[in-house]
Amino acid sequence: MGKLSRGFLGGFQGQLGTAYGCFWRLMDLIKAMPRKSNKPPTAKQLNVQLRWALITDFLGWLAPVIKVGYQNKPSNQSAMNAAVSFNVKNAVTGVAPNYMIDFTKLQLSEGVLEEASGYTVATAIGSKLEVSWLASAAGAVNSYVTDKVSIMVYNLDKHKFVMLKDVATRDDLEYSVQLPLDYSGDTVHCYLTLTRDDDKMVSTSQYGGSYTII
């Protein structure tokens, strides 16, 4: 990468032969065009690509949750990239090329807001899930009665998500999830996250277990 000092080319943007110019941080820069590699990817590279694609496709359905849930990302990453990076490292199991998601380790948000104490899920007739949690202890740090509760349910058989964002508050202590009736007999995985009412603080997501809908 070279820096132009208003020489014979002056400042320019776009491609010129095998180079391209851009204006960055009040400087005119010239860079070489990246070269295409004719080398086939190694087995290690292919494995990384498979794991990355698996998580990227899965989390793409939850973009609104991820955007808030990973807002405290490193400055050089998007919220989605931060979420994918974490889950590729921690929530993928199996042997190449048959990778699978470990739903018990999947993390949909990461933060310091107090988690939902005593979080439980129970099935109910009519394709329902009864979600409940306990009140935070008196004086609990980073816990507010107005914190918003979001519930995510993944149908393993139909490969579909039910995303219920901000459907309750921490002091509600319970929420009844009505799933589609055709979910009866299917296996689902449940997650819960909390967000402060100004969306500037989140809890680390909690896994609520796997259930067969009745």
Automatic annotation (TrEMBL):
A single Pfam family, by name? DUF6266
Tell me the superkingdom of the source.
Answer: Bacteria
Q: Which PROSITE patterns match?
A: PROKAR_LIPOPROTEIN
What is this protein's record name?
A: Uncharacterized protein
> Lineage of the native species?
Bacteria, Pseudomonadati, Bacteroidota, Sphingobacteriia, Sphingobacteriales
